[in-house]
Amino acid sequence: MTVTAAAPARSPQLPPGRRAWRTLSPYTYIAPFFVLFGAFGLFPLIYTAFISLYRIELQTPGDMEWRGFGNYTAIFTDPFFWGALRNTFTLGVLSTVPQLLIALGLAHLLNYKLRGRTFFRTMMLMPYATSVAAATLVFAQLFGHDFGLINYAIGLVGVGPVDWQTGTLASQTAIACIVVWRWTGYNALIFLAGMQSIPGDLYEAAEMDGASRWRQFLHVTLPGLRPTIVFSVIMSTIGATQLFGEPLLFEGNAGGGITHQYQTLGLYMYEQGWSFFHLGRAAAIAWVMFLLILVLVGLNALLARRRMAKEAGR
């Protein structure tokens, strides 16, 4: 007697419409993102590149005159553009470096078991949740020349009043203080999340080897936190390049001070588009900022990758 194996059951054939729907239905869940990104992200980017090649005035936006790369040539020959680029760089350094260092120290303290850790972590986000307009107006009063609290405090130790809104270094330092105050807590919580992902066994092994807390921080925390640090540096670089609200509201004009001493690229673009009505030139500045951000982000990523490859080869 021979036994024949039963043929495997065949799944019922679905109609072509049902098969097509089963194939395409997953894409319907992600379609809203791509629709919104195309409408509010990709299309404005492409349209900005398009109008940057024309001469368009705000009073007559329908009259477009072809200029080619004339708007870019006008930008690169304008000394105020190079001044704004220099101010953007100096403000970025003055705000980003202290911000990340302080955030790293605060995150290291909050990583230990402290009383009221939840309260302190919540307080870290309060400056970030504060309106940039409210924060800048308060700091503008603090850095006032005649009745500012900062000049009063330094006067107690014998230092004369500083004109925080006129001097180049003084005004940039004041604006950098606003940025540091608003974003330090945000970066501290990002660092804290990265620290909590580091395995506790590494700290226990380092402690058994007699490593102090400082050495644990140098040889365990920092290497494990490197991807988070790279992310924070990249995001801070993008934010510094787009700095706009704080310098605009510090004195209330798009010129960035009497002598343009703290005018950033964002203020320069706003001034060209909404004060001088040159929409085509403003669009060109926007694309220059976009390309500058790509270069800076790529440079940061390249340096981080080379550093990681160098350490991995040791």
Automatic annotation (TrEMBL):
Keyword set, alphabetical order: Cell membrane, Membrane, Transmembrane, Transmembrane helix, Transport
Pfam families: BPD_transp_1 (PF00528)
Domain ABC transmembrane type-1, first and last residues per copy: 85-300
SUPFAM superfamilies: MetI-like (SSF161098)
Topology of the protein relative to the lipid bilayer: Multi-pass membrane protein
Location(s) in or outside the cell: Cell membrane
InterPro entries the record matches: ABC_transporter_permease, MetI-like, MetI-like_sf
First-listed, main subcellular location of the protein, grouped into a coarse class: membrane
Regions crossing the membrane: 29-54, 91-112, 124-143, 284-304
Record-stated family: Belongs to the binding-protein-dependent transport system permease family.
Name recorded for this polypeptide: Sugar ABC transporter permease
Lineage: Bacteria, Bacillati, Actinomycetota, Actinomycetes, Kitasatosporales
